[in-house]
Design brief:
This protein is mainly β. It has a single domain (5-125), classed as OB fold (Dihydrolipoamide Acetyltransferase, E2P) (Beta Barrel). Helix content is 10%, strand content 41%. GO terms for molecular function: single-stranded DNA binding.
Length: 150
C-alpha cells in the first residue's frame, strides 16, 4: 500500500503552533494548492496539514500567511464526537518532509532558515529508505513513445 502526498502551495494564514501535554511540538496549517487540470483549471483546494516535532517548530518559526511551501507526507483520517453527539471526520496531511520555497528576502526578516527538513521515520514505519518510496519496486520498463495511448 502506498500513502504518499506531495503538495506545493501557499499558507492561508500563520501556522498554529502548540506543545502537547507530553511536550511534543505540533504546528497545524492550511495549504492553498491550485488546480491545474480538468475542467476547473482555476480552482483551489485548501488542504489541512499537521507538522510534528522539529518540522512543526521550523514551519511555525519561518513561515507566515502567504509563504510558499512544498510538503511531502501522508494522508490520515481521524474522528471525534462533537458536543451534541455528532461524529466529525477530519482528513489531514501529516508532514514528513518539507521545503521552504520563499525568496531570500522573505526569510531574511526572520533570520536564516533551513531550506529543507526531513523528519526521522516514525518508529512504527518499517521503511529504511524514506527518500525513494519506490526503491524496491524493480527495474524500469522500457516503453517506446509508439506504445503509449496518448
Amino acid at each position: 500500500m502506498i500513502n504518499r502526498i506531495v503538495l506545493v502551495g501557499r499558507l492561508t494564514k500563520d501556522p498554529d503552533f502548540r506543545v502537547t501535554s507530553s511536550g511534543i511540538s505540533v504546528a497545524t496549517f492550511t495549504l492553498a494548492v491550485g488546480r491545474k487540470f480538468g475542467s476547473d483549471k482555476n480552482g483551489t483546494d485548501f488542504i489541512s496539514c499537521v507538522a510534528w516535532r522539529k518540522a512543526g517548530e521550523i514551519i511555525s518559526q519561518y513561515t507566515h500567511k502567504g509563504s510558499p511551501l512544498a510538503i511531502d507526507g501522508r494522508l490520515q483520517t481521524r474522528t471525534y464526537d462533537y458536543k451534541d453527539g455528532k461524529r466529525v471526520y477530519v482528513t489531514e496531511v501529516i508532514v514528513d518532509n518539507f521545503t521552504l520555497l520563499g525568496s531570500k528576502s522573505d526569510n531574511q526578516s526572520q533570520g536564516p532558515a533551513p531550506a529543507t527538513i526531513n523528519q526521522p521515520p516514525v518508529a512504527t514505519q518499517t521503511s529504511t529508505n524514506t527518500q525513494d518510496p519506490f526503491a524496491d519496486v524493480g527495474n524500469a520498463l522500457d516503453i517506446s513513445a509508439d506504445d503509449l495511448p496518448f
